[in-house]
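Project outcomes to date are best conveyed with an example. Our students and postdoctoral researchers have been running inverse folding experiments weekly, and each run begins with a structure described purely in tokens. The record below, which covers 743 residues, was selected by the lab manager from last quarter's runs and is presented without edits.
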């Protein structure tokens, strides 16, 4: 019920819950309007209403229901954000991050609801009729999106309710046709929301306006049956209220009398719900008497029955026999001097507060019935927020239950909503436990979860949660999940996301053990080789791995041979100082005087050296060049250095050839092989294995990887360069190898 004086009623829970949410700023309202005016004055909403005029009206509605100046200021910033390039940044700079967050969240919700309406309208225009279940599902999904929005910021609810009410007022004033879906959304979603939150003024007006647009003929018919205008009805109720308050005061009963005429939609709803005729609706006009104590309740009731005519069978004593939800009050119906029925409720102040603040509120006993409502009283801002959120959860639960009852094939109970100790809503799958809740809040909280309190009571971790419960998790400083949590028969986890996080934890644990095993093996190898000073990351990079841990992992899994590491660790043959040549020392056959397996044509016992720049090997075509003091350097005939030297000193060129037994006496020659490939894990290993299978000793490796391309240079010992070409063909066929050639 609504008092004739708004000051006599306690504020709605949502007002209390948002009282301190926005910081009060000097001249915030005037500053916000001045900020938004140049952006909004020439803009129109999709309803045709001027945006600035709409924002002005929203601010006035917020003021009427008790919203602060800061809340009124936010109404302008919400609409201004649509016309800013960087709305959050701009608004935060001018008014603070709190205002900016509110504007952005409200704008997001507006867009979601607009898209939902458009989708519903589009489906309605299709040739296929929309099933009732689908409509119910759309409505429930809209409610869920609103719940999640409110969990982030309760102030959103006040702005959306005020905005929708002003939109309905605009259509009523302009007589313009109402867009499809807008009036039904107001009646099915917004009005029940205001009802749940105790914002009666908005609830009643929104219901009447929506019903007027949706069923204009029925609305006019009921209005005629009332046989008087609303203003006259309100005046009659006010007259009765004042008379009753005065008469009770003279009897020594200190009472607060509240009253209202019943709204048209409420009348229609009651007539349809109870199959009543208009003359059977007795609470079209109603009064409420609030007194200090229970004896005064019965004293006030006796006076009412003495001075008015009671209607038989219309008396209920909920003080002596409280409702299942704890609601207490005296209800009676009497007729005034004109014979008009009046509903009178009598209760104590404690009963009134109990009913109005959420535990057994008007909406609770009207809609929940015998099921009752497990809410809390809003004694402070935090309790008020808890009350609001639980009311929203109860609303969603009741809505889903109603739809499911009508459409047996449809279930909307796939999700539940529970509260954190800080009054934030957490969405979970049906049957979820406290462990699911912990992982939904934060992964670390889930890992360290060891116990849980639900509504203040300790429960086992595998206890299924229910809508509206407050969950508090007990944790340890260190630790991880239990393997039992992954056992579906034990029922610890329902959420797929939470199960994935537990599996990831155990996989990481096993990976850690594997890496530790690999690290130990590599470090032992380094000790044997006397290379403990080698940087592990550099070693991994040389082997083609991104990090040392990647190397340790494959070693720990026995997927990478330690032999490959030994190859990298063994240094190449020492280079002679100030010598560009590699001197090969081979056993000299007793019958030959050639050095290094090379014969100088026409000259005996002449020292020869294989050039380091091209590293010739039989049967390469070769050519000699006489050096100063170092004998004859032997080059491959295609060596670029040789060509340059011939150009400068052509007279020092000498003919040479390979000795007849070269390659058959065990002689080997170092050659360089260049490989270009797409970098991948295990590439170096695969190439090394090819050389090992072909019994070619690798004496040096150099690797470099840039932007996914690896360049490798291998120095191998061969007795015949012709055989090397076949081996390079095998290397070129490896996965990822682009080219493999001799340098």
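After processing, the design step wrote out the following sequence:
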């Amino acid at each position: 019920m609504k008092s004739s004086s708004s000051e006599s009623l306690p504020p709605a829970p949502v007002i209390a819950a948002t009282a301190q949410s926005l910081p009060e700023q000097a001249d915030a309202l005037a500053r916000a309007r001045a900020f938004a005016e140049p952006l909004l004055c020439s803009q129109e909403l999709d309803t045709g209403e001027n945006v600035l005029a709409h924002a002005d009206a929203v601010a006035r509605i917020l003021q009427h229901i008790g919203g602060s100046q800061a809340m009124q200021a936010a109404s302008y910033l919400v609409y201004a954000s649509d016309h800013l390039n960087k709305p959050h940044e701009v608004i935060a700079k001018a008014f603070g991050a709190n205002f900016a967050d509110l504007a952005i969240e409200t704008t997001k919700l507006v867009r979601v609801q607009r898209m939902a309406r458009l989708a519903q309208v589009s489906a309605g225009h299709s040739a296929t009729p929309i099933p009732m279940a689908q409509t119910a599902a759309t409505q429930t999904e809209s409610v869920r999106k609103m719940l999640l929005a409110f969990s982030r910021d309760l102030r959103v609810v006040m702005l959306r309710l005020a905005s929708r009410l002003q939109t309905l007022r605009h259509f009523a004033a302009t007589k313009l046709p109402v867009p499809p879906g807008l009036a039904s959304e107001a009646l099915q979603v917004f009005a029940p929301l205001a009802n749940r939150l105790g914002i009666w003024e908005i609830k009643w007006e929104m219901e009447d306006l929506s019903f007027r647009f949706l069923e204009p003929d029925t609305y006019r018919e009921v209005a005629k049956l009332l046989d008087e205008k609303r203003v006259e009805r309100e005046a009659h109720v006010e007259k009765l209220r004042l008379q009753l308050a005065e008469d009770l005061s003279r009897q020594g009963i200190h009472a607060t009398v509240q009253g209202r005429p019943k709204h048209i939609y409420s009348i229609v709803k009651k007539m349809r719900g109870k199959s009543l005729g208009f003359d059977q609706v007795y609470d079209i006009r109603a009064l409420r008497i609030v007194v200090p104590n229970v004896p005064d309740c019965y004293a006030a009731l006796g006076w009412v029955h003495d001075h008015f005519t009671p209607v038989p069978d219309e008396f209920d004593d909920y003080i002596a026999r409280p409702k299942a939800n704890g609601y207490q009050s005296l209800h009676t119906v009497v007729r005034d001097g004109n014979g008009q029925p009046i509903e009178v409720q009598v209760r104590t102040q404690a009963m009134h507060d109990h009913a109005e603040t959420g535990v057994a509120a008007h909406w609770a006993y009207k809609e929940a019935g015998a099921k009752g409502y497990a809410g809390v009283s809003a004694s402070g801002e935090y309790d008020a927020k808890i009350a609001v959120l639980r009311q929203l959860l109860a609303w969603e639960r009741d809505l889903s239950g109603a739809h499911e009852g009508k459409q047996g094939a449809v279930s909307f109970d796939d999700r539940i909503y529970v509260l954190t100790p800080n009054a934030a809503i957490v969405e979970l799958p049906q049957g979820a436990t406290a462990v699911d809740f912990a992982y939904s809040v934060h992964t670390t909280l889930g890992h360290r979860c060891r116990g849980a309190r639900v509504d203040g009571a300790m429960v086992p971790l595998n206890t299924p949660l229910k809508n509206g419960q407050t969950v508090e998790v007990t944790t340890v400083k260190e630790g991880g999940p239990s393997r039992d949590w992954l056992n579906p028969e034990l029922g610890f986890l329902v959420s797929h996301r939470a199960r994935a996080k537990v599996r990831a934890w155990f996989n990481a644990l096993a990976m850690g053990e594997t890496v530790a095993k690999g690290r130990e093996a590599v470090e032992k190898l380094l000790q044997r080789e006397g290379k403990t000073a080698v940087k592990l990351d550099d070693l991994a990079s040389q082997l083609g791995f991104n990090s040392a841990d990647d190397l340790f992992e494959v070693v720990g899994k026995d997927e990478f041979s330690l032999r490959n590491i030994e190859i990298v660790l063994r240094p190449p043959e020492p280079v002679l100082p100030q010598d560009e040549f590699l001197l090969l020392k081979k056993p000299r056959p007793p019958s030959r005087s050639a050095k290094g397996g090379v014969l100088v044509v026409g000259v005996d016992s002449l020292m020869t050296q294989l050039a380091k720049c091209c590293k010739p090997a039989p049967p390469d075509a070769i050519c000699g060049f006489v050096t100063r003091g170092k004998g004859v350097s032997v080059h491959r005939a295609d060596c670029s250095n040789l060509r340059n030297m011939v150009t400068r000193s052509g007279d020092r060129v000498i003919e040479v050839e390979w000795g007849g037994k070269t390659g058959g006496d065990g002689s080997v020659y170092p050659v360089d092989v260049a490989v270009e490939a797409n970098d991948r894990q295990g590439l170096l290993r695969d190439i090394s294995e090819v050389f090992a299978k072909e019994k070619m000793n690798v004496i040096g490796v150099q690797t470099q990887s840039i932007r996914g391309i690896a360049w490798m240079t291998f120095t191998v010992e061969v007795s015949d360069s012709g055989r090397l070409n076949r081996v390079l063909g095998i290397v070129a066929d490896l996965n990822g190898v682009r080219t493999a050639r001799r340098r």
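The chain has a mean pLDDT of 75. The first strand starts at residue 256 and ends at 261. The training component of this project remains on track.
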